[in-house]
Records
---
Amino acid sequence: MSRPPLPAIADFPFWTDEKLRIADTDHNGHINNGAIGQLCEAGRAELIQAATGDREGRDFALAVARVAIDYLREIHYPGRVRIGSLVTRLGTSSVTVRQGLFMDTALFAQAENVLVILDTQTRRPMAIPSSLRANLLNMMKK
Amino acid sequence: MSRPPLPAIADFPFWTDEKLRIADTDHNGHINNGAIGQLCEAGRAELIQAATGDREGRDFALAVARVAIDYLREIHYPGRVRIGSLVTRLGTSSVTVRQGLFMDTALFAQAENVLVILDTQTRRPMAIPSSLRANLLNMMKK
Amino acid sequence: MSRPPLPAIADFPFWTDEKLRIADTDHNGHINNGAIGQLCEAGRAELIQAATGDREGRDFALAVARVAIDYLREIHYPGRVRIGSLVTRLGTSSVTVRQGLFMDTALFAQAENVLVILDTQTRRPMAIPSSLRANLLNMMKK
Amino acid sequence: MSRPPLPAIADFPFWTDEKLRIADTDHNGHINNGAIGQLCEAGRAELIQAATGDREGRDFALAVARVAIDYLREIHYPGRVRIGSLVTRLGTSSVTVRQGLFMDTALFAQAENVLVILDTQTRRPMAIPSSLRANLLNMMKK
């Protein structure tokens, strides 16, 4: 299986800053894998917010269909992390977001997130609205 | 300051069982204080559910005004805990719930929770509805 | 991309029971994706515990290298979930565990976890000890 | 019961900044009470860190004996919060820390935390070391 190369800071057009908490640690002494999932979610949420604008009045929702996280090295409390996000694929009704998670400048995890655009009424997949598609295109690699 | 005596298993008419998770631990190697707050919340929620019945169609809500937790001893993953709950005071629009948290038969924490009954429309305190008051009376010490 | 078929209850030799908490919910009204990650972790931890025995005196550790979760449908509080786990691959120093997460009998998520066996001293990958390998073989599909 | 007046921003000599996460929300649509406990813990941890310096080589530990939180109003994701901390009492082997939690400039919760200084060897309470006492005195109201 050939994996894509590890991401670098320059790959990501969109950034989210988060701060580690004691509750993010576990009895192995490091930041818990689930907490790293929360950091990915924080990055996804800010990217979605930036791409879709206000939640009010929207006729679509984004549901998370798949999250795959590669844990590359341990990190420890205290500290701040930066989550870089990049749209890597735009399907008819789905978006793929790749993320790199950095502490200081070291990559400690990467993630691939697949989101599906749902019609708020029917809760079924719908084509990505054109204004959202335009915004997401701006978060793809140039 | 005189404190009430520590609670015993026989004091509690209502019980909730929970199971510890790795994410409940922290880098001190024990169950995190915040996770113990989640266990208290689990007990409160089941007591409220038992006393109020279905959430649907209710014209009141219960808001948590105060939670005070005494941490008596450390506990460690893995394991199960039991949360005993007892209504200790019924005011006009507030309820006080005392809790004892046990692992095996050892008390490791106790909590006092003050809940306020709110009118769903106005979000202001309202008198405890009579059927709810009757149910809560059944959860007081005989 | 061809995906393996969705797992069924009968596929899993190892089971973990968990109970949902209010803190597992989020403002979308459902169980948060990160909380579902905690449920996968609970299943992994119990499988590892069953396969390796006591943590004391072990000269190896298991590190999580990758977790990929497919979110198939929303679930809601309150309730209990069952996490089925199955070893699908045994490499020289890595183990792949597939999981199916069920509420009542409905599959709501599946996960693939890759674990690496590390030498506790060097923190580098080491060959799976033979007794652990034997135990993990028992958790593969017959 | 006469309660002390609600705290104001000017009361607190020590501040911690935190950022809300989606995982902090619950199905009531607001930030979960337990997540507010995590914010108090973040403030406690930074105050302890500032007062005690490096964890390495210390012969004492601080254990949380009691946390009482008053929930004054709901807050919602997204946003940042500031936690002000103030030492209000120094006993022989215990410290009381009062906290005010603010979003924008509005107080939404307050907390009282009682910490006990433990001898790392015996795990029993010990007198507050003089250098720690001096640092904690600087975090009391002038």
---
Amino acid sequence: MDPLDGFHLYDTTLRDGSQQEGLTLSVADKLAVARHLDELGVTYIEGGWPGAVPRDTEFFARARTELDLHCARLAAFGATRKAGVAVQDDPQVTALVESEAPTVTLVAKSDLRHVTGALRTSGEENLAMVRDTVAHLVRLGREVFVDAEHFFDGFCHDADYTTSVVTEAFAAGAGVVVLCDTNGGMLPHQVTEIVEDLRARLEQAGHGQARLGAHTHNDSGCAVANALTAVRAGITHVQGCVNGYGERTGNADLLTMLADLQLKMGLDLVPEHTLEEATRIAHAIGEIVNMPVSPRAPYVGASAFAHKAGLHASAIRVDPDLYQHMDPRAIGNDMRMIISDMAGRASIELKGRELGFDLTGEQNVLSRLAGTVKQREAEGYSYEAADASFELLLLDEIGRVPRYFEVESWRATSQQLRDGTLETEATVKLRGTVSGTGTGQNGGASTGRAVAIAEGNGPVNALDLALRQALRDRFPLIDQLELQDFKVRILDAHHGTDATTRVLVRTAGADLEFTTVGVGPNIIEASWEAISDAYTYGLYKAGVAAPTG
Amino acid sequence: MDPLDGFHLYDTTLRDGSQQEGLTLSVADKLAVARHLDELGVTYIEGGWPGAVPRDTEFFARARTELDLHCARLAAFGATRKAGVAVQDDPQVTALVESEAPTVTLVAKSDLRHVTGALRTSGEENLAMVRDTVAHLVRLGREVFVDAEHFFDGFCHDADYTTSVVTEAFAAGAGVVVLCDTNGGMLPHQVTEIVEDLRARLEQAGHGQARLGAHTHNDSGCAVANALTAVRAGITHVQGCVNGYGERTGNADLLTMLADLQLKMGLDLVPEHTLEEATRIAHAIGEIVNMPVSPRAPYVGASAFAHKAGLHASAIRVDPDLYQHMDPRAIGNDMRMIISDMAGRASIELKGRELGFDLTGEQNVLSRLAGTVKQREAEGYSYEAADASFELLLLDEIGRVPRYFEVESWRATSQQLRDGTLETEATVKLRGTVSGTGTGQNGGASTGRAVAIAEGNGPVNALDLALRQALRDRFPLIDQLELQDFKVRILDAHHGTDATTRVLVRTAGADLEFTTVGVGPNIIEASWEAISDAYTYGLYKAGVAAPTG
């Protein structure tokens, strides 16, 4: 499929989205986000500004070998050449070329006040900068888009000049000129008027068929509506960010626009089965950038199709469609009644079946399990994100949880010595009682007791290493399990350092991938719980028999 | 001022807003919110549903004596009479009368499918219910508004029937009929078409001058735009909730609509000096309902006028108005520079000025500082969230960072003993070299050395307590500083427990509130850095002199 054929869904999460206060992306984060965006089926992924931001230069370098895009095309963002410099001699333009991105999106000033006040050059030179840079990159075989910065404000101030920037870009070979509401203050009726006016001018200038785009921000609360309005006025390229990330109040939310355009305005942007992944992808990206999806987010938020029980409840049962603006399954979300039915017996029975346990009719087990889940979630546990810990809970309830090891004691110490060096070590002692099968060097066949000590980067790392060492001889499979992800969340932050901590640990290896959870006022204790559960679960799922002693 | 004269700004935070998942309001909360809304100058405050919700009955009772409204009028929300019941005999209608609210807003079904499917009555009886209830309340001297529920969906399904509900309400004496997008899925162009169609029909029916309202939800991300669009189509009453609270994705954000209508569309809704309180009021209400204002909220959010990009900073210095869609002071907010690794010298100069340091022309200092920020952010530090740590960095650069204490060593140990009990303790040793002024029990005047030990809930808590104890005798002000918030982020989570950790600590007390940051592979080390910086910064800002020894 040639991306130029259809409508462009252009994602700028990795560039403009990362301007969001509090959002910082590593190169690995960026690669992970890009894979999700490609899976969603966006047309373009703007990866960053190579040459200006070192991390972005590295992103494009690694993308060449590590990013195997199936659908999306990678775009590098950059600026037109500097005033008074030949385009070939501008290192920033050279960096764009060297990024090897097939598409380059150039930001160009289109408000004369910014040209003279911020760039401190003339309107004429600015036009030459647009012309030279676009033509140069087109000559080198790049697809070139131009972001007309401050387009709407500029058009209101001096429509002739702003239009001349657009026509200059098209004349030099730009594939799209994107009308940017950089300060984000436009209202929908203004967008309609300005886009229609511009299109009439472009028609006269012989660029009536040229493709226009819209880049909107949410400063007046109208980012999505402004983009939709622009589409109705003839625009065929919209830019936005997943979950509405972006500088200040954020960019237009890409997934809201996608759902509105496809489900309500009839545009065919991504395959149906891909749109059904939208909710999952929004939340996955929220996890990667560590900025969770707002429960109130349109379409993909946890509350987007949630109904407080009461007035509507009985009517909803009769005909849910009367109470929702679309079928939530179309974007992978679901209608939900807010009556904490998550921990109800029915859902636990369903969950059990999902895990391979038939609990049909086991009302006592289901009731006890529902009670335990409710109580532990009140303490801060979260089983939604930790299937493995839920399964261990279930196994415990039916008396089938395997006991691979019993902990005698553990200790973790971090210290800064007089000379400034940091030292962290941990000791783990496992009892011998269950070790009938063990003959490890650390313990010995006579007692089966295992004592291990390890140094680490931090107390949790040291404890993890010590526990692995204590288990290794008995259970060599341990070496195949790797702790891949470690998340800490302070639950009651208002108690300062004296608060409850939740730790989620993701483990992979031996053809498994699973998450365990630990909770406690002490981060070390919570981590210990999640890690020791991870090894128990890993050994159990890999089919290792528990000692019978 | 007769509220019927001008445009209506109708707040439903206390009714529809409280449908938000996770939001529960006590009567005292409701009274406090109402006072803030009155101060803001809204025209109507919908207080709740007396007779249906016991708390709301109590709210209206207490409002009569405890709520002294200067500007707003109180509205009680309720439903039209039950099918087949005389209006005088409907206890729910009687409760509306007994609430003594001067205005009553009745919800009426206006979608025929809901009339037959949910109410299970006929279209004719539904019209009689509207007629009887409105006329009854008007006879009793109430101002009556009608919320036409599911108006837009109903109009699309059967415009004639839906219009007849509107005309029936006006004929019976309703002051406003409010067009409700109850399921929230409309797009702006649909709103325009439907409102224009309805107005033409009302013109024909002799209600061309009647007042229409709009009640919108954000399910398609267009709540605010849909209301503004309705206003352009002739509507003169908008309903919304502060901070966009509300069921599912929320109601239209009242303050965003107010600012758009007044500052961009030229309507004169509230006095200028009242609008300047909007940011404060939004945050005050967020505190009362325990659901903080999103930093990304238009106009009033903490990030709404925050700039991160180095790109813009130099130009912002020249003319801030080129980079903001309106003057943030008009709604009581402020422009703010965020220091990040994208920041160049210009933004550091601006940030310095914000903190009270004039670095104009200090090119060397600015360059070194920009370099340090860039390098440390690459290591994982984040100064955007940690102004205090940035200020310490700046003080360090100009040789003015105060040295209140020097650390000799520290140690934190967590352990689980054989009997299963958990123990955590920390030791902190401070050198005597800087303690010329200290005569504490822990150290003594001869050396000034301080040694303290403390137990805690976790290693960080124990270290914090030990450090406070070691500093207390020298600096009694320490007891006024409280660590209020503690955030942990694992930066390169894919290394499992062997990853970089960032800790943010918010400290308050002694009329200060600030955030410090610490980074390291060891969570204890990172926490130690953030905590010890917090005490240094707190003592410095409180004006405590550093020992000179």
---
Amino acid sequence: MAEIPHTAPQEPTGGYPRVVIIGAGFGGLAAVQALAGAAADITVIDRHNYHLFQPLLYQVATAALSPADIAWPIRHILRRQKNTTVLLDAVSAIDRQAGVVTTEGGRTIAWDHLIIATGAHHSYFGRDDWEKNAPGIKTIADATSLRQKILLAFERAEAESREHERAALLTFVIVGGGQTGVEMAGAIAELARHSIAEDFRVIAPASARIILVEAGPRILHTLEEKLSANAMATLQKMGVEVMAGSRVEDVDADGVVIDGKHIAAKTVIWAAGAKASPAGVWLGAPADKTGRVIVDANLNVAGDARVFVIGDTAAFTPEGATRPLPGVAAVAKQMGVFAAKRIRAAVEQRKPPENFKYHDVGTVAAIGRNSAIVVLPGLKATGFIGWLLWSVSHIFFLIGLRNRASVMLNWAWNYVTWQRGARLITSDKPEDK
Amino acid sequence: MAEIPHTAPQEPTGGYPRVVIIGAGFGGLAAVQALAGAAADITVIDRHNYHLFQPLLYQVATAALSPADIAWPIRHILRRQKNTTVLLDAVSAIDRQAGVVTTEGGRTIAWDHLIIATGAHHSYFGRDDWEKNAPGIKTIADATSLRQKILLAFERAEAESREHERAALLTFVIVGGGQTGVEMAGAIAELARHSIAEDFRVIAPASARIILVEAGPRILHTLEEKLSANAMATLQKMGVEVMAGSRVEDVDADGVVIDGKHIAAKTVIWAAGAKASPAGVWLGAPADKTGRVIVDANLNVAGDARVFVIGDTAAFTPEGATRPLPGVAAVAKQMGVFAAKRIRAAVEQRKPPENFKYHDVGTVAAIGRNSAIVVLPGLKATGFIGWLLWSVSHIFFLIGLRNRASVMLNWAWNYVTWQRGARLITSDKPEDK
């Protein structure tokens, strides 16, 4: 069967092994692309019509980029891959026995091989009531609504005559000192201190207070201590108050309680925790405390060679390691390719690769303009050189020439003028004003 | 007083004559910019934080441009104009006797001179119940929600197995054969026939039916007959069915009734009528049947030299003309400058200009790529030359270098690849899926 040239089925035909891939993030997309040309009927299911370059989502939230700069229609990416059908839908249940996936749109889709790459959401560590006042940034809708919230805070402060209210409007608390939190804090500092500094008459946006709270002893804790310290010093130079070893005890509409002390803040941003999508529940498989499904050396669940879980949804602990691989793009992509290779080998009746192995490609985090921390195998860079490397690597990994050119243009313009091109409060709902 | 150099007031001080400008569209923005450096305390009130380049809004609705490409923060445009304060708010009432404006945000703002430039909304000719199923395009939120509706129609058609439902999803009806309707019809045809033609497996997007309905005898009726005929031929060549002299009698969730015949269509777009914002009601002044306030030769209301109404909100009939000037950007801008000059003359105790006179700068309408109709004083162009002139003129009038570069980049990319860069369905609400 593998030798028969494959033509596109108008509907899944059953003639070829059926592969279902749930989620078209970094992991799912890498998997489907690695299956290009395979003699299989592939269905990709995603709840959005776009693949999102999540690492730059904070730049949408801070008005530097437009959503379309970092998102790309999944259908369009896969248009030439004729063995693949794209479905805009979300999974509601998986029946492993029957080999079917059920969707919120009421579909039932049969599979012979299944890859679950549904990612993660924010986690509020049991305090889901905080979400309303401390939104996170995982989707484009999150980012544009956060952009609106940040821009409106300055607008409201300009119109506010009560001093304490104005101060609360000009206080921004970012919870979580990982990469997203650090990048958000730096970007808001740049926005307030430079981009919009001249634009108001009553308030001085540059006087805004930006606080980055981290429960652990240091920010960017996956990096070595020296680099954490460098990042902290850079943020402080930009006017960000970094509170490491501090615990957020409460969040409400008026602010946060940190280590017993209330800080009045109208904008609180959550960059602290992730919780995997409910793949463990769907599969009835064991998961760790953040909901990630525990997978074996071949990324399979409970020894079921038909079912793979990858990316942020999976807890894979390499041999000899003490904790699972982190939820980053590079891990997800490599997992996707590995799962695809095993499926392809099964379809083509060849010997599959064994035992997933992650090749570390490094860590990068930008801290405002001119400064980033880059740790690659055999290379460490900070400051301006780090920032150049960060910029080039991000542009390189964007999908599509247009997006690369558009992001480059926006960054160049931002670099020269300090301006941000997407300062739009787009909602027409009066309650958002 | 006029000789005293003006410094920026931290709060409106009352030391200078107070000018309030409501609305920062083409008219309002032209007025405030023409008052740069005047010895006046100027307040600009707008319900959005951005000035919008409305003529390209249809390109946002059809996924060619991002909102940030055609919008610019009002504050930023006016940041160096120190006599001006920008307020994000909407007017709820005007008291001419007391000389104050009241806002939805609960503010009361006093004025010595007032310019009302609040624009127009869609008009459904008394059938406001049609709005839900036949949305118009006046704001960014309108455009992104229409973009979502159009893209979702193709997604739903791909997943639909019932033939008649699929046909209804692939039928797009645009009501109104003016500039917006013609441009929308052309853009949707291009989207369906080229941009997304390859991306689906079940449906053939190129088979979509696109119908442009116009109640009058011909489309683009403000142009001479030959040009109308040229536009119609171009649209027909692109596969748009043009129904001139046809009346829409009903709109519901399943389609439209045109001349007694029901056409099943899941996407109906309203580009037919405009209704001025309620300035007439606010002022207690006479208005025409579309709500436009009737203004005198100096654009004043009922001889009140302090109050100007301009742009789409005003009905100004030049001497000897049979009908008021049309609601287009050029008219609004020239009216804004005229009103500003009169106010400036009053402030500086000079003789004001008399009798507004519109200098016709022409009409342009794009009909998909490679074709536009351009009528300038002393020049008529159609086809490719028209399209080049159309492109250059639109880029020229955009505010800001970044926006110009970004729009040029997107157009160039679209021209070469036929692709549209902003094909995003961004809502996370399940009911939108």
